[in-house]
Amino acid sequence: MSAQEMLEKKGGMIVIGQAGENLVRVANIVSGHRYLGRAGMGAVMGSKNLKAIIAVGKAYKIVPKEKEAFDKLKKRALKYINASPFTGDGYKNYGTASHLDYCNRHGTLSVNNFTKGMHKDAHKISGEEMKARHDTKHHTCRSCAILCGKKGMFDGKNRVVPEYETVSLLGANIGIFDPVKIAEWNELCGKYGMDTISVGNIIAWVMEATEKGLLKSNLKFGSPDGIAKIITDMALSKGLGKDMALGVKSLSEKYGGKEFAIQVKGLEWSAYDPRGAFGQGLSYAVANRGACHLSATVVFMENIADLLNPQTVRAKADFVKFFEDLFNGINSISICVFTSSAFILEAPLSKYTPNLILHCLMQYLSKIAVHMVDISIYPKLWSSVTGIKLSNAEFLRAGARIHILERYMNTREGISRKDDTLPERFLKEGRECDPKKTTVPLHKMLDRYYKLRGFDKNGIPTPETMQKLNISSV
């Protein structure tokens, strides 16, 4: 069957753009209007001279083993999603950019290469403002109940509404608060197949490096001039864009400025400043693929749900571990990770416990609290589809095994405590919005995290931990 015939049969496909073909390290993979955005997977396909993969479905029909139980669970899941103020209101009506005002209020917004923390014009690029100004409509994943994706009219053109990470990193982080410009650059990155998180960080680094005289460019904070051209140059590996295409770690090694290169283990990070959310800082530092906010989104509990004190080390290691285990499990059963806020916080134990008590439990009795969190809907959905019974503890243990197997593979390549760190900016330099100039006390949290994970003091999984999870060392 030819590719054309497969497409005519409505086959699904993943493809790369010119950035992937040119081995740009921040190249991504597109499927429909969604992107496999992080860690340069587009460059991996490009390195193999692989442009696209097409698959025709419907060869098999998936029928739940316990259909009646599955249907009941599906109704319960939808009830939680629709009742949640985050999935049923914020994401559904305004998209992920509904996070913006929370982060600006807490001083965790990425502004001017993570120097400021908040900005008076930030509301101009919020999900609420874009809905009001750009007549946004749903533009979502197939069969989605949350409906976080949006499209809207920008200067007379129907464009994808940029998500939170994009409005923050390709907007506020370079000093731009014009949603029309950000939507244009977002579309351009999509055309070439590049990750907007990394692109925004790279451009911000170049702007600061230019200010400091480390290199020459016409890019400067607050100016849209030259942005579209440099995005194109990155995708085509031309001029300064060729160096930028390698990422901020490589740039800082060539030109200097490592202290403000916003990356961990070579991966540029997302739009949450950990000086206003210590748990998120720990999560960035220890994430297996580098600074990934979806490894453990503790900032949600710190800044958005307001259930953890954001600027204390207490409980943070416990919740980073918990969310790492949970998210690995969720991703393995192919359910959107955004369901977690609804399924956890709308479950009766969380929903009907007064917020003050819930906050105190999570903050001061974290060891108990992480075991009380009701995640039962996930293993029950798994069991109803497969017929294989799985308890909450077994579900989290499966997630832990995935995480530690990845960590073990990384340590074999030389990853250790020396790599579980943050850029100097966050360890030694305060935000402009914070008179106390708070920095992240990372190492206090790191010791506790290693102990919980069963790592030695250098961050290596111990033989006992490996044996307990039935992972064979090589």
Protein architecture, described:
With 474 residues, this protein is mainly alpha-helical. It folds into 3 domains: 3-55, no CATH class; 95-268, Aldehyde Ferredoxin Oxidoreductase Protein, subunit A, domain 2; 274-468, Aldehyde Ferredoxin Oxidoreductase Protein, subunit A, domain 3. It is 49% helix and 6% strand. It has 25 helices and 9 strands. It has helices spanning 3-8, 18-21, 41-47, 67-83, 85-94, 100-106, 127-134, 164-169, 179-192, 196-211, 227-236, 240-244, 248-255, 278-286, 299-304, 316-332, 339-345, 348-351, 355-364, 366-372, 377-386, 392-412, 424-428, 442-453, 463-468, and strands at 12-15, 29-31, 34-36, 52-55, 137-138, 150-154, 157-160, 263-264, 267-268. A 3-stranded antiparallel sheet has the order 5-6-7. It has a two-stranded antiparallel sheet with strand order 1-4. It has a two-stranded antiparallel sheet with strand order 2-3. 48% of the residues are buried.
Topology (elements, then pairings):
Blueprint: H1 3-8, E1 12-15, H2 18-21, E2 29-31, E3 34-36, H3 41-47, E4 52-55, H4 67-83, H5 85-94, H6 100-106, H7 127-134, E5 137-138, E6 150-154, E7 157-160, H8 164-169, H9 179-192, H10 196-211, H11 227-236, H12 240-244, H13 248-255, E8 263-264, E9 267-268, H14 278-286, H15 299-304, H16 316-332, H17 339-345, H18 348-351, H19 355-364, H20 366-372, H21 377-386, H22 392-412, H23 424-428, H24 442-453, H25 463-468
Antiparallel strand pairs: 1-4, 2-3, 5-6, 6-7, 8-9
